[in-house]
Amino acid sequence: MRPSFALCALVLLLGLGSGCLRRKTPAASAPPPASSLMDGGTKDHTAALALPSLAQKFAADFDVGAAVMPFQTRDVPDILARHFNRLTAENDMKFGAVCPSPRCNFAAADEIADFARKHGMKMSGHTFVWHQMQPGWVFQDQGKPASRELVSQRLHDHIFAMTKRYADVIDNWDVVNEAISDTPGKTYRDAAEGSPWFKTFGSRDYIKLAFQYAAEAATAHDPTVKLYYNDYNIVIPEKRAKVLELVRWLRSEGVRIDGVGEQGHFNIEWPSTADVAAAIDEFSAENLEVKISELDVSLYARDDHANKKWQPVTEFTPELQAQLAQRYADLFRVFRSKASILTQVTFWGVSDDHTWLNSWPIGRRNDPLLLDRNHQPKAAFRAILEL
Ligand code: GLA
Questions:
Q1: Residue-range definition of the domain harbouring residue 184
Q2: Is residue 356 in contact with ligand 1, taking CB distance under 6 Å?
Q3: 32-45: per-residue pLDDT in tens?
Q4: Which of 25, 151, 185, 272 is deepest in the core (most CB within 10 A)?
Q5: What residue's CA is closest to ligand 1, atom 1?
């Protein structure tokens, strides 16, 4: 999961912005430390609840979602219910989280789904196939690598079980997450880039199989559910071209894919709003739905991922607070202008006390969301509401 230095150098040379400097290597955010669990529910939400509802503000445009861990349905239930009409499980519906052993445990996923049901929210299913957080046992058979047939059967059963269990509340699934390579000239993330799926199949065929199973599961349990491919940095034209290659291949094989999720792990400078808009348009021209599935805006635009040089901790000054507000307003102006294409804009978190960006790419304070560490609305929240 490395950025291509050559590609980044070219992009920078061409003056196309700092995207490569901030380039993302995804990682699951760790469960919150005990202390943050213990202060759950004690922060003052008066200001957040006094604001007009964010979800209602954009009700005519797209859904507004939040990714959550189960504890947040107890920590910020009132904020979720007021400002969001959609949830994603930040980690708890991933294969490895649900089925750490062949005996699956749905308790954490169910807690989030039950909260959504209770509050009349929809959910985005995340995710069947990813190269991270996969259960090791799926790829093993009595101490040896499992055959392609066995892995296929296990994937089939998992997709059917999840589709059926959450058919009433999940209306779209990230069937496959991050299967595209960042390496120039290489389309698919392979075994060398850490995909146990590619390793087992020796090819991209696992992607096709996952979408086929998902379509069959939809027919059996949930005919209206939408099937998505989800990835990061697909506002970058080179990576977007690879996603389009994947989509065209699936469709040429008669396999259904309905939409593409642009994760939206952006930063305060990158990407340009023009690039965000161009990406949405290009997917739409391919007859795909588009969602912004994991939006956050990091304060750090000067990280050098190729050389692992990270910007020092930034103080969230009033100037930066204003800059973040401007940035969110600019992004939402674009999203709104693409409302006929976008199905949802989902934030990757609720408040700055719980975001993966506090621990990635290094442990460092970040302030990427609409509510601060004390659950107080930031200027960015108000700026979006004022559009
Ligand atoms: C990727 C994944 C998410 C999450 C983030 C980091 O974007 O799709 O599920 O793990 O990384 O939190």
A1: 5-385
A2: yes
A3: 443 344 345 789 99
A4: 151
A5: 26
